[in-house]
Fold these 3 entries.
Entry 1:
Amino acid sequence: ARLVVLVSGSGTNLQALLDAIGDDPEGYGAQVVAVGADRPGIAGLERAERAGLPTFVCRVREHATREEWDEALTAATAAHRPDLVVSAGFMKIVGKRFLAEFGGRVVNTHPALLPSFPGAHGVRDALAYGVKVTGCTVHFVDDGVDTGPIIAQGVVEVTEEDTPEGEAALHERIKEVERTLLVEAVGRLARDGYRIEGRKVHLGHVGE
Ligand code: GRF
């Protein structure tokens, strides 16, 4: 399967995919064909360049409207003919045009146990709420914010040492679980196929 990965930051989830694929895309069942971002100059793009991958940047502020940005992101992504789009720390909400083109084939990873704590501050919100466990969720993107059908989840304990100031430390612990969860989920979707029925994701040989 051809993957386009969208990033906005450090790109450690992207790196985990690249490391898992290594020199055996056949074995993994997928290869990253391009990396897109909503801003330049981020480590995620450097990781892509180090891997010799094509990259593209679509900045919201370079477009007169959000819809035009969405169009541009869709075109830039479609140019690489992805079978799956992986949003790995991409911090923009894709629009109607993008979902019309890639709906059912966009996978997102979120650093909280959805449906709890959706949105851009999942780690901070879970800490503030005082949860005893949190974690991460790999899910398909639908027209809501972090509301699509869930593919996989991983749990991370929250301890007494996890103070609100320690959001970054907790997020790092979540990211350790998240990277493994994403690599395994994407590999299975790519190798075994899947079918989405309402909120349920059926993994495995499609059409049997
Ligand atoms: C990940 O935890 C992702 O879930 C969240 O931001 C982080 C991105 O990390 N949206 P990276 O850019 O993959 O290192």
Entry 2:
Amino acid sequence: DKGNHRHFMLKEIYEQPVVVAQTLRSYLRPLEERVALPDMEFDLASVERVAIVACGTASYVGMIGKYWIEQLARVQVEVDVASEFRYRDPVLTPNMLGVVISQSGETADTLAALRHMKAAGLTTAGIINVPTSSMAREVDLLLPTHAGPEIGVASTKAFTCQLAVMAALAVNLARAKGQLTPEAERDIVHHLQEVPEAMSRAIAHDEEIAAMAPKIAAARDVLYLGRGPDYPLALEGALKLKEISYIHAEGYASGEMKHGPIALIDDTVPLIVLAPSGPLFDKTVSNMQEAQARGALVVLISDADGIAQAGENTIATIEMPKVHPIIAPLVYAVPVQLLAYHVAVAKGTDVDQPRNLAKSVTVE
Ligand code: M6R
């Protein structure tokens, strides 16, 4: 049931504050100001390396997880798309934790990768939405997301719920590795508690994003830029756009612009820049300005400070609430999803059932 929404995708975007709160509820212990995981039969302190494997949107959660886990827990993380991991003969050692991420829990390549990790003797954890799925049954440690059924082929609420669980995993690893003080953990708990409200404030920009969508819908190519954890989000923005609007889109790490993609820029190319104010802001903005000098049609997604500093010469700005960098990917996911959605609606494509795609990819 779509309720009063025109598409499942829009309904699922709007559900995010509730389902992310629901997911966080099973990991946050507000009274103790701690982040907890379900009981497990192994000791996270013994984890020396992490291998994260997933496909599509879920693989971008893995990439964001790499930033979080390496920064907070000082544990080395490798991220692969499952179809590559299976066949590249990766070096797997028993002190590794293997992590799979999947909405359906049935994606053929991810399931095969999970079995490969188990056969190599790894302990495995799975961030999975469907609790009765094959992956949910086969992982050693099930870390459920509570997104509820996701109907739209374009993943939205599963993505942000996966991020919430990934943050919980990163914090637990960090504590187990002796890298996190109780005060630092308390701060993270508070920031995570702010997520649902911040997501609601992001959703409030829906109409404004709908109004700018026709400008993007006319483009042949669209580029997305981000740095740090906003780089995988740029990849996610580009995937979402091509998936449902059929416009060619690419995401780049901002610093890569001048290593090639800037050659694509002219005054017909929209450039969606994901840049929360903070330590990485100035660098991303300088990459953005190089593109603006070549005529790029910039949409800057930032907070009030960022927009005050760099909002000039853009075709549009979308103002996000000012949030701590650790939760920014959850909040900035919302305008990225809404933009893809409204561009697709403006183009008149079948948003919930895009051509050539299946919700669950159970063959390789
Ligand atoms: O069910 P899974 O999370 O394993 O699915 C993985 C991908 O097929 C999926 O995220 C796909 O990329 C989405 N259609 C993206 O919106």
Entry 3:
Amino acid sequence: VERTYIMVKPDGVQRGLIGEIISRFERKGFALKGLKLFQCPTDLAEEHYVELKEKPFFPKLVKYIVSGPVVCMAWEGPGVVASARKLIGSTNPLTAEPGTIRGDLAIAVGRNVVHGSDSPDNGEREIALWFKEGELVEWEQNNAPWLLE
Ligand code: GTP
Ligand code: MG
């Protein structure tokens, strides 16, 4: 089954949006496999966004991600990577569709409240990066027959 790494960024935590953001994935029907509040060190933030290392905003981005605690999550389900990206909305909250997390809850690209993996491969890479052995929970959600045909 497919998994994605979702993270409430420091602005989302500070603004009291943790529950609101978790709720959107939970209500959609995806299964939560890992969850923690975490103060990210600089080297991990740099590794997470390694593909953006050459961008002019990279130092600002790393500073933002380590500026306060984040909420790390692993979510599982069919097509969860692309679906989560749709629920999150486009990178710039001003052009993100209403109804999406960023479209409803943010106004600045550098304060866009949530992260979601952009491919299944990156989902696995990021879950391995942010969670240690034993932090993910193996469990079956008993509502699966009501969510999956
Ligand atoms: P993530 O889910 O956080 O990975 O966002 P994304 O996939 O929608 O965008 P991308 O991976 O391209 O960029 C990662 C993050 O860098 C964004 O979420 C923004 O917080 C930040 N970012 C991207 N582009 C810009 C930019 O032009 N200016 C600034 N200040 N930040 C940017
Ligand atoms: Mg990205």
